Amino acid sequence: MTWLRERAEWFKWAFFAFLAGAVAYDFMAERHDPHFFGDTLIGFWSVFALFGCLGMIVICKGISHAWLMKQEDYYDDK
Amino acid sequence: MTSSMLSPLAQLHPWLMHPATLFILGALLMPVLCRINLKNAALVIIPLVAFFQINMLPETFGQVSWMGFDMVFGRVDKLTYVFLHVFTLMAVIGSLFALKVEDWGQHTAAWLYVAGSLGVTLAGDYLTLFIFWELMAVASTFLIWYRKKKKSIEAGFRYLLVHVLGGLILLAGIFLKYRATGGDLTFVQILPTDAGLGDYLIMIGFMLNAAVPPIHAWLPDAYPEATVTGAVFMCAFTTKTAVYVLARGFPGFEALAILGAIMALYGVAYAVIENDARRILAYHIVSQVGYMVCGIGIGTAMAVNGAVAHAYAHILYKALLFMGAGAVLEMTGRSKLNELGGLYAKMPLALIFTVIGGIAISGFPLTSGFVSKSMIIAAAGEAHRTGLLLMLTLAAVGTFLSVGIKLPYYIWFGGKSEPSVPHAQDPPACMLWAMGIAAFMCFFLGVYPEFLYRMLPFAVDYQPYTAYHLSETLQLLGFTGLGFYLMVKKLGPEPKMNLDLDWFYRKGSLKFMAFASGPLSKVNDWVGEVYRSIGLTWTMLTARALSWFDKEGIDYVVDGTAKGVVDTGDRLRQAQTGKIQHYIGAAALLLFGIMIVVILL
User: Fold this and answer.
1) Which of A2, B192, B268, B494 is 20 to 30 A from B91 via CA?
2) Which residue ranges run through the membrane (chain A) (predicted)?
């Protein structure tokens, strides 16, 4: 495990290769029975996932910092 | 499932074929079993017997007439069977995981809880269902209390109160239904067009156990406070029993479709920001059960199949995740992500198993999530519910982000090369075996989905391994990973907690009490003071005045009259001397007086 961890750089490039491969595969994947317009666009789910993920982190963390986040003993105070 | 296959247990006694009976007997005998060192054998054998016993159940059994009610303790069809299958399998895994626990009370509570779930699943009428429903609530509360920490005891009380409330709503619904149907309490599907108030109350009772927002906060409040092994049972049974009863009674209710999709996102949103590993997983139950509730709400055969399949898959990978986080808690005493990290070399097997749970919940190809979750999303697409489809897909992105990557990353790596807990090590063999079985099932269902699809209530016409679905999944997972890679610093765990709707009965009630004992009480005191100083004084003054009037007025007049009469009588008595010359004199004086008055006037 430590040996693998020392070669984290390899994983990074393998990961980027995987992303490129996933988009490339979308060009070939046959679209059977598309349910809505997004299903017909190549790479739609890549964009959806990336922006969905970034948006979720920003929005959830934002709401948490602005409003929801409290000290861990918040409920202990009587 | 045919009566010709009655098991030896049934021949021994008909009630023994009910799998709940086995667990109840086992639970009651647990103190003795511990005393005579048969606990471990029982923990392995009884769940296994129950697991095989469910294949030998007749379609109907255990009919009892009681106080005019027709109770059915056993009703087996395909929907029942698939839940019985996964519940008993989970009982095997959970009991194996808990093998090292010496406290017999925990085993008793866990098995009574399992018995409650099996009883609900097999119940053919609402009354039987209610009895086992309450057994579940009480037994599971003990799984929280047995952690024996102040926070657990408090969380257990809140959990119990919320579930008692849910039980009361359910009972009110059952009463109304009893009146509406003229005494028929058979538990069958209700069409949305036929539903009355009683049906909706029953649905709300079920929804509370399914943790549908806004009545969900008991779940992330209680589960992280349960014992390590108790949480493994709890994550499997309460919500999934609720999914079963919703699938049985309320498919096609639009409210469930919408609330389910909201649930899926709500749970994920909290999982992104939470710090405690078991709290993240608890929020993820809300999210994943959201998929199931949404599927039931869509109500098509494919959607309900998807919901049931997802419940089956979810029980196994969620239990695996809870076992992973529980093993970390057991071995390190910590469950908060900010206190963990760098454990990859210390707990490698727990890491591998938890990652398997994480990729299964995220729906990686070849895992169970891929073949079950996608069925609900595809069903939403086929029903032309694009909004639901996008919400559920976005929730899948958040799932991979929070449980697939964030959770294992911050427990085992977190950018730390030194272990945060130097003495940490992989958990005992029984725990690893239980995790291994669950991990195997995650892959087995993913590679061989027909095993699961065969058990589903409706015929399955769905193929998960298509080129487009694979492409969609790889993109979703890959680019979510990219999002994490870009934002890893922003996602760092913070030693804080986040408010949820339990605020209303935790802080909200305290604030109300503070309001009641503060401003409200002050107003009350002020009103009292005003009454005392003005009202009371005025009353006293009035009373005094009345008293004076009574004494000086009424009494004077009354007493004076009496005295006057007496005095007059006295004087008259003294005037009566009996001497004629006195009387003549007095008459002359009187006459003389009258004359003067007449003359003067």
Assistant:
1) B268
2) 40-60
